[in-house]
Amino acid sequence: MSVTVSFQGIGASPGVAVGHAFVIDARKVRTPKVKLKPADSEAEVMRFKTAITLSDKQLEELKVKLSTGAENEHALILEAHRMMLHDPMFLVEVTRLIKEETINAEWAVRRVCRRLRHQFDNLDDEYFRERKSDIEFVADRLVRNLMGEVVDQELEVPVGAIVVAHDISPADAAMLVKTNRVGAFVTDLGGHTSHTAIVARARDVPAVLGLGKASEGIRSGDTIAVDGRRGLVLVNPSEEQLSLFRETMRRQLATEALALKTAELTSVTIDGVRVRLNGNIEFADEIPSLLAHGAEGIGLYRTEFLFLDRPAPPTEEEHYQAYKAVLEAMGERPVTIRTLDLGADKVPTNVKREKEINPALGLRAIRYCLQHREVFRAQLRALLRASVHGNLKIMFPMVSGISELREARSELELCRSELSRQGVPIGRRVPVGIMVETPSAAWIADRLAQEAEFFSIGTNDLIQYSLAIDRQNRDVAYLYRPLHLSIIRMVQHIVDAGKRAGIPVAMCGEMAGDSALTLVLLALGLDEFSMTSGQIPTVKRIIRSVSLNEAKELLGKAMQLSTAEEIERYVKSEMDKRFAAES
Ligand code: PEP
Ligand code: MG
After folding, report:
1. In the chain, what are the domain boundaries?
2. Which ligand number lies closest to the CA of residue 338?
3. Is the pTM of this model over 0.90?
4. Of 326, 338, 340, nearest to 290 (Cα)?
């Protein structure tokens, strides 16, 4: 009888799966180290250049294979790998080592890559640590090509298998979800922002990453149970454990089936109040899942993710292609594209910045764009060009005052006139709105509503800034309370200002998708809620089973209470009375 072993990792994509392990060969590429005769170094440089050309061609081919429709985002990642190959510093350094130290190309590639990786070592940031794997993938490809080994071999993964690996390259992850029904991903490296996590979430495939050395202890064929929410992996679980996992899987499938059934139903209360339910996305891949779960549009497309995985900012054309793909995939449905929210925890590799003491209060989002006009303009021009392909709305993040909105709008107008002068087709006028996510914007919402065509409340930041709680800091996480009376009052104030000015008010922070809060938000009078796809069906079910009056009564009583704990307790007890049996 086999012994059960359990591993705890990072739950990077939710869901439960049970299946047989398919271990992807984690064998490291062996790097031969050879001292050359000085006379041979020119030929060695040529060999290196040939391997670059070959690697570039392979990546291009892969990109073409993956660039149909929703896989476009992976193509962008592969493009980033191509750019690393052509990085002048990299080419010069490898060539220098080959010539000056008379070493073979494989060795020189490894040494330069090792140095590059070390530069990331001291950065205490998950995102940067992940980028080290990208350098490794590019180096492996080059070394394999130098040695004449096979690369990009298609993996024959059995349907439903649990793919186990030390790490999975973006190319493999994208190919795997495209050609197979992977049951789950289990890897030693990686975390929330690694490509495997993104690909897995977009395809609703459970994933547990960052497991240390788990792959060494798992053999192909082992029975594996994966809980992608808790980050738990059991190898050869007992019958009892297996039946618990299978039961959770059954429940998940039933919920999913129900979700798909409600997709076509309208989101309306029993007394006829219509609330639009939209989806939040980071990548175009998420659209099929959004539509399957009944999203009526996209309430928040976080475009900064286009920036994070690359050595240089995207070109206007790359922006344009990304937005075109999303707009076309959504057809007539509205798509709210948020301009760059870089800064704070989202900083791309290509941006060298001084470390800020308070990054959340620093140069982020609209502030960053207004100081980097060339970056902003490329995005705005692309948005205007893409507007011919669908129902676009443009949204500016982190607006803290009227001047920022005016400046951003005037930049947009400049881009519009420039494009018209150049004879570039642009769509009809696009609604321009703002995220209300700073307390200052909340308190001047009446004035902002005169100049913005819609509001979307970003509660993730609004709570952070209002309650003075760093949303990344675990020590104060207990104070992060969406039902703090100040937050409820602030949302009420924003909604009222929007209504008086006759503009729609949406909410796209995490609070919007929390089904425990649906009645409170309904009573506050929001026109739209925007959330991740999996949350839509439950929120819709709640909306369809209550009346606005009932919600208002609940909110009225909740607002009589004083502490966040009291309000939470009261709202929970009311929700349990109505919906406990369903959850
Ligand atoms: C928010 O702040 O609520 C929001 C939706 O934006 P982000 O989470 O991207 O900061
Ligand atoms: Mg925000």
Report:
1. 5-27+153-255, 38-147, 263-582
2. 1
3. no
4. 326
Residue 257's contacts (CB-CB under 8 Å, 6 or more residues apart) are: none
The yes or no reply on domain 38-147 and CATH 2.40.340.10 is no
263-582: CATH topology is TIM Barrel (3.20.20)
The CATH-assigned architecture of domain 5-27+153-255 is 3-Layer(bba) Sandwich (3.50)
- The pLDDT profile of the chain, 583 residues, written as one tens digit per residue, is 578 889 998 888 888 999 999 998 755 677 888 888 888 889 899 899 989 988 888 888 877 776 654 445 567 677 778 888 888 888 999 999 999 999 999 999 989 888 877 776 656 555 566 667 778 778 888 888 888 777 776 677 888 999 999 888 777 777 787 666 799 999 998 876 677 877 787 778 899 998 988 888 899 899 999 999 889 999 999 999 999 999 988 888 887 787 778 889 999 999 999 999 999 988 887 898 899 999 999 999 999 878 765 667 899 999 999 999 999 999 999 999 999 998 766 665 555 566 788 888 999 999 999 999 999 999 999 999 999 999 999 999 999 999 999 999 999 999 999 999 999 999 888 999 999 999 999 999 999 999 999 999 999 999 999 999 988 777 888 898 999 999 999 999 999 999 999 999 999 998 999 999 999 999 999 999 999 888 899 899 999 999 999 999 999 999 999 999 999 999 999 999 998 755 4
Residue 467 CA to residue 486 CA, distance in Å, equals 8
- How would you class 25 by CB atoms within 10 Å of its CB: exposed for 0-12, middle for 13-18, buried for 19 or more? exposed
226 beta partners: 17, 233
Q: Which one is catalytic: 74, 81, 195, 389?
A: 195
Would residue 195 show up in a list of annotated catalytic residues for this protein? yes
- Residues 441-450 as b/e (b if ≥16 CB within 10 A, e otherwise) read bbebbeebbe
Cβ–ligand 1 contact at 304 (below 6 Å): no
Which residue, by CA, sits nearest to atom 7 of ligand 1? 460
Nearest CA to ligand 1 atom 4: 458
* Ligand 1 proximity of 377 Cβ (cutoff 6 Å): no
